[in-house]
Amino acid sequence: MTVGAIKMRITIIISIILLAAFLESPSAFLLVDNCPVSSPCTCSGSSGSSYIRCDSKSLSSIPTFKQSSYHVNKLYLYFYTNKLSIIFNNAFRNFSSINASEIDLRLDGNKIKTIETNAFSGIENTTTSLHLQSNNLTTLPLAIGNLFKLRSLNILDNPLHSLDESVMSNIGRSLTSLSIDLNHFTEWPHELHFLRVLHSLSVTHIPFSHLDIHAFHGFEQTLNYLYVIESKLEKVPFAICYLSHLLSFEFSYNSNLEQNKSSILEPCSKKLTSVLILKLDSNNLHIFPDIFSLFPSLTSVSLYNNKLQYIENTKVPSNSKLTSFSLQLNHFERIPYALNKLKSLSTINILENHITTIETPDIAGLTSLTSLTIGYNPITYISPNAFNLNSYLRKISLEHTNLDHVPVAVTNLTSMRHFYLSGMPIDCTCDDMSYLKQWNVSNIVTFRANCSSSSETIKTYILNALQACP
Question: What is the pTM (predicted TM-score) of this model?
Fold first, then answer.
């Protein structure tokens, strides 16, 4: 074979390789070399994801797009934060030629009042996620019902007052995620019953005090994630008792809970054993709710920003599987002793409470603990033996407490890798730190604490200057 023939063969092989790369990932060619829209919009792409960005451009209408016969895996169309008030018919018609497997369409943060019926022609048979939050929609546009493969819909922060039954019926076959604001509704929208494959529901601003027990009818067997935020509900609704496959439940920022009159949890005929994650943040709770009776399988609990002062021992089971517990921003003066029953607990966040001391028995039972975040408390004393039985403790945050020295208790932790002690006046002198001379801090990956009298870190001082002390 001649040299020329060999070169020709190599050229053909390279061309074939480049063609294969194009066919596998054409988005880069589409968006770098042939952007279907002109300035001020821009195009980019990588690893099968393509982006057409027209966000924050003061646009009053959707720009005209050129036809581009390419295939992309996922196409992101960003039109958020503009001045759009109407989405006209055929606004996305030319996207049919791009042949995207999936489209993520963001129209949030505009002033949209009207979406014409055929606005989504061209993408109606494409798997779509539609973001319409923070607009001026008062009804659910018929155009949404024409998105036959709509998977996710976010219509939070719109003055909606009703849901169109035909629209809900059409999207009910495909919609798996819905985020909706009910602030202007006079009753629970029973049109939600058409959502037969719903996995995730986020509902904000429920304006009534109670829900019908069949509120979640239609998707009791499919719903995995439920978020109820900023409602007027007086209790966690009994309707959740029918959600047999619920994995994660958030009930936060609900100011009307009758916590001091009775339990916030309605009694169910059977326990919800499927729920693993529970968030009850910012609910003005004074009494620790009996969460483990209804949700016995919990692995993560957050009670952030309430007014809890005490946890009754009887409300914490000894066989709990809980691994993560957040009690940040409450009114605890001591680490609740009842936590010692949680033998699987590995992470505690008890930031910003009123804790002044950590005594020897406070967390002695937490033998699986790996992370303790307890900064921003007025702690002045930690018992030298406080962490003796926490041999797996790898991370401790004591930032912005009232300690004026490195606690002796941490020097016994051979597994510790991250130690946060910044925001306190700790003097680095031979006299003040002599007890730390034999402490091996070289294995601590993060040691966030500085000497008060210099910019030197405490770790550096212990490793160097302190070793030279008499």
Answer: 0.89
